[in-house]
Amino acid sequence: MPLLEVHRVSKSFEGFRALSDVSLAVEEGSLHALMGPNGAGKTTLFNVITGRYTLDAGRVVFAGQDISHTPTHRIIHYGIGVSFQRAIPFPSMTVLENVTLAVLALDRKTRDFARPLPSYGDAAKRAEEIISWVGLSDLKRQVTAALPQGDLKRVDIAIALASKPRLLLLDEPLAGLSRAERAQMVSFIRELLRSLGTTLLFTEHDTDAVLQLAERIMVMHRGSVLAEGTPAEIRDHPGVQEAFLGREA
Amino acid sequence: MTLPFFFLEFMTGLASAASLFLLAVGLSLIFGALGIVNFAHGSFFVLGAYFLFALTRGDAAGFWHYLLLAVAASLVVGAVVERVFMRRVLNRAEHYQILLTYALLLIIEDLSKICFGADYKSIGMPKGFEMPVFVLGIPFPSYYLGLVGLAAAAALLLWLFLHRTRYGTLVRAVTQDREMLEALGVNVPLLFTLIFALGIGLAGFGGAVSLPLQSISTGVAVDVVISAFIVVVVGGLGSIWGTLLGAILIGEIQAFGALVLPEFSIAFTYVLMAAVLLFRPWGLLGRPPAVRT
Amino acid sequence: MRTKLAVAAAVLAVLPWLLHDYGMQVAIQALVLAVFAMSFNLLFRNTGLLSFGHAACFGAAGYTTALLVSKLRWSFAATLPLALVAAALVALVVGFFSVRLTKIYFTMLTLAFAQMLWAVTHKWYGFTGGDNGITGLLPPGLLGNPKGLYYASLVALAAVCAIIHVIRRSPAGYTLRAVRDNPARAEAIGISAFEYMVAAFVISGTLSGLAGFLQVAWQHSAFPDLLYWTTSAEVIIAVILGGSAEFFGPAIGAAVLVVLEAVVRSHTQYWPLALGIVLLAMVLFFPSGVVSLFQRRQRREAPRAAA
């Protein structure tokens, strides 16, 4: 049984059909990409899975549990980590505070109005460990508002990892990064998730990055699934070539 | 409750609705375009009434021709206030906009006290409306009908302006997409001055034509602006027809509420406002936000 | 910071021995508004929600005290717990319905609720005395004596500051700021924003009730004005005037506002005009509040001192 199963999902906005009859299965341990030009429905599908949008028809099942109508804040506790497009963590806090808060949120310890946050030693220790995974240990006392875009992405991924996810969902993890930063981010995500064994589903419109990082790819076009397969299959798929690869190459 | 009595109560409600509409439509227009909630809006309504009173010296004989002058003065005040103050807070956090307009409320209140005195001002029925009309045998102030007519005419003219003129099209467009208009080379700051002056002009007009019905003093602005908020929130911030609907609803609720439970008729209007905000925060005729994210 | 705080506390502690009757009245009023402003800012600063309905909590507590004292002959101090409960209940109802809305809609709904309470209080002559209010509430003992009331208010202010400080550093305090900074991100770490915002509203409203209680003790009466929207406006002015981003900004803003009013009123009847001009100047020229004015000067002077 796949870890995440999207079954015949549709979603419209004021008559505009953003998703029609989309299905997707993500196997545990795989690196899975959603690809397509802007407006193809990637982010809409992403937001349907994460519970930000309600869906009109279909089902989303995670680890055997129907999460079609579950709000975002509950999905996180099932073992899904999320990083949205244009990642901005909580700008008024330091990197360590950002990640510590996410750790405490997972443990449902944020309802405490009395004990100081820094006194939660275990949570801070766990947060420091996660921060070291994303390579930001030197910056952990920095207020995030002052960090450059590439570091912000890493902070946001660290926050997502604090949810101890079985499935990590990243929306456009490379958007806003320079060419050099992109290459770095691709290898960083690959190494990190290999060592953690976390399943990944991400959206990206940069074809090269997708072909480098993903093990399986689903290509979307105008709200529908155009093709699905391994990077090699996608590269050779005639419809895909016609729709984008030809244009980009 | 007999039928004629019911009808007269309804007409009284409609007359206050006319006054409320003129008061609130500018507030709605300004919020729609500039995104500013104007806490001084009631003050400009009161100021319009003061202008008329000062010009006529309280004598109803000069009502009609001085009315135009009072409205012109309100338009000028609106334009100046927009140029000098409003444009400096357009892109600022909402609480600065509220504080700035609240400051204007305080300043206008005291300045009008200095200029016009703190006592209540009123004026007789204007020329042509001195005699009551008889509705089903009961005398009824004919000016109530005149006020409804004036408000209806203002609503119609405003609609024609917004939908049938080039400037009106721009006003509607700027409510929806300011950047687009700027990209097209439209002088948006000038447009904002125009809209603000128009909104204040309408409020001043409303205050002036309401003077024969309700006497006015400097302190009433804080009550008046809350009525305007209720009307636009119920109708939908930024919607002209919504403002009209809101004004009629509030006018009638006040008229009939005073019959049913005289002590708590004001409370009814707040209950309506809260109910609308809870179930349709964008108002009865307002546009819901495109996508909730 | 710590020495500044110690100096301020020492000055506030000896102040009653330096002031005459009128000065004491001004000082107490400043402390009461400071309690209110600090409480209001707990919500505004940490959640970004601009409530125009805090007069409801302030007035609900004030009227609870006034009614219990005048109708049931309770002793003044004994009404405090129920006054706080009343403020908390009002805050719970208003907050529960309002925090779902954003920006101006939140502000308008809180305004509507507070005005509803005002309208009923204003007209319900049989119970609240309507616009005649409830008068002649001279508290016995400590609260009835200016020095006693001053110190009670000072202790209340200290307690409110301590509570706010503790909340700010707690996980819940961080959670509130997370929701303010980026609500979608907060949801996506597993936080249900709604309950935290309601909790913040209730705490802020309850502490505002403490100010309402003190206000009634100070003015020996309760009037519908306690609930009117201009009371909510006054606390917002105090908060922004002092600077909502500074911890003690609201308290300092409250003191500046009350002292300024006392000074201006002793010279002219046109206090609203003066306040309007001050607000205009603040919005246009020093939007971060009076506290930041001093800090900016310090910062500007600091490098010169180093050079």
Plain-language structure description:
Chain A is 37% helix and 24% strand. With 249 residues, chain A is an alpha/beta fold. A six-stranded mixed sheet of chain A has the order 6-7-8-3-9-10, with helices on both faces. In chain A, helix 3 (95-106) crosses helix 4, helix 3 runs parallel beside helix 5 (149-161) and helix 4 packs across helix 5. The radius of gyration of chain A is 18 Å and the shape is globular. The model of chain A has no long low-confidence stretch (mean pLDDT 87). Chain B contains eleven helices and two strands, in the order ααααββααααααα. In chain B, helix 1 packs antiparallel against helix 8 and helix 2 runs antiparallel to helix 3 (63-89). Chain B has a two-stranded antiparallel sheet. Chain B has helices spanning 3-34, 41-56, 63-89, 94-116, 142-164, 166-176, 178-183, 188-210, 221-235, 240-260, 265-279; strands at residues 133-135, 138-140. Chain C is 76% helix and 0% strand. Chain C has 14 helices and no strands. Chain C has helices spanning 2-14, 21-47, 54-72, 80-98, 103-123, 125-128, 146-169, 171-181, 183-187, 193-219, 229-242, 249-265, 271-285, 290-306. The longest helix of chain C is centred in the N-terminal third of the chain and has 27 residues, at 21-47. The model of chain C is unreliable at 300-307 (pLDDT under 50). Chains B and C meet through helix 3, helix 4, helix 9 and helix 11 of B and helix 5, helix 11 and helix 13 of C.
For the secondary structure, the number of strands of chain C is: 0
Reading the helices and strands of chain C in chain order gives: HHHHHHHHHHHHHH
**How would you classify the helix and strand content of chain B by structural class?**
mainly alpha
The amount of helix of chain C comes to over 70%
Integer average pLDDT of chain C: 89
